[in-house]
Design brief:
The protein is an alpha/beta fold and 189 residues long. It is globular and about 45 Å long. A hairpin with a 4-residue loop joins β3 and β4. The protein has a 5-stranded mixed sheet with strand order 1-5-2-3-4. It has a two-stranded parallel ribbon with strand order 6-7. The chain starts with 8 loop residues before the first strand and ends with a helix. It has 6 helices and 7 strands. The chain folds into 2 domains: 6-96, Methylated DNA-protein cysteine methyltransferase domain (Double Stranded RNA Binding Domain); 108-187, Arc Repressor Mutant, subunit A.
């Protein structure tokens, strides 16, 4: 596990422990409680750049700082209230969809995998092998799994819909129980 760069987490007043360039990108975030634990939603000027799920707010803030280095992170509950409400609503009722603008960041390969996942509808699953084939790399099954593990936009990029070739659920960045619960909820649709 990486040591968090706590210097780029700021309060709502944007007080920072370490000076950033005046034109440093700002990412705002907020947190809320869900059936899966604490949810952190983060937004850049371009859109939602992270939806993180975990048990402790501090751990999620460290994960956010690790994911987005050299940016100014500011907690802004008011500005992100509507985004958080949409994520929490999606967790309760996945059939409603999750209509949020996304700021998807990753390697070109990761982006191809994540773009393909955006085409997997609620209530459906895809195997790692089928996903690898869909992105034109049928032998890259492990790389597809790693791209899923690197996904910082939980639920919106539905890595939880990827299963093993035998249909069994594999591990998930957000925990096996979270993945199982979301897949079961979506199957009821």
């Amino acid at each position: 596990m990486m040591i968090a760069n706590r210097a780029n987490i700021a309060s709502a007043e944007s007080v920072m422990a370490e000076p950033k360039a005046p034109d440093a990108e700002e990412i705002k975030f907020t947190t809320g409680k869900s059936a899966f634990g604490t949810v952190l939603v983060a937004r850049s000027a371009a859109g939602i750049c992270a939806i993180l799920i975990g048990d402790e707010i501090e751990a999620l803030q460290r994960d956010l700082a690790d994911e987005f280095t050299n940016v100014k992170l500011s907690r802004d509950d008011r500005a992100l209230r509507a985004d958080l409400d949409k994520v929490l609503s999606f967790i309760k009722t996945p059939t409603e969809g999750l209509d949020l603008p996304l700021d998807i960041r990753g390697t070109p390969f990761q982006r191809r995998v994540w773009d393909a996942l955006l085409g997997v509808r609620v209530g459906y699953k895809i195997t790692y092998a089928a996903l690898a084939s869909r992105v034109g790399e049928p032998r890259a099954i492990r790389a597809v799994a790693n791209a899923g593990a690197a996904n910082a936009i939980a639920l919106a990029i539905p890595c939880h819909r990827v299963v093993k070739s035998d249909g069994a659920l594999a591990g998930d960045r957000w925990g096996a129980e979270c993945k199982r619960s979301m897949v079961e909820k979506e199957a009821l649709t």
